[in-house]
Amino acid sequence: MSTDRKVVDNLWIEKTTEGLKVGLTNAAQEDLGKISFVTLPKVGQKLSAGDSFVELEAEKSVSEFSSPISGMVAAVNEAADKNPELLDNEDETQAWLAVFTEVEE
Predict the structure, then answer these.
(1) How far apart are the C-alpha atoms of 40 and 98, rounded to whole Å?
(2) How many Å apart are CA 102 and CA 105, to the nearest integer?
(3) 8-30 burial by CB neighbour count: b if 16+ within 10 A, else e?
(4) Residue 102, Cβ neighbours under 10 Å: how many?
(5) pLDDT tens for residues 32-46?
(6) What's the predicted TM-score (pTM) here?
(7) Does residue 49 contact residue 70 with C-beta atoms inside 8 Å?
């Protein structure tokens, strides 16, 4: 795991050139089971830490994750929106959900 990465409530946060990227940890993937549907935030949406961020439907449960940070959604993983199984990747860097900019500390 990168030294620029931290984990909050089963979501990882990593500083990238695009902004702060947020994704699912392997632990979250295991807890959920095979992911079949994802509802991602909209690009341009401003979220505060604790706001509803993403909803995932999987074989073991339907889970809603709260935003771990405050900022604007600059990008979402459109490939995972079309094919949610991509979020089951053992390489958790591939299980990213969104990129935030204008992050408030």
Answers:
(1) 8
(2) 10
(3) eebbbbbeeeebbbbbbbeebbe
(4) 11
(5) 999 999 999 999 999
(6) 0.92
(7) yes
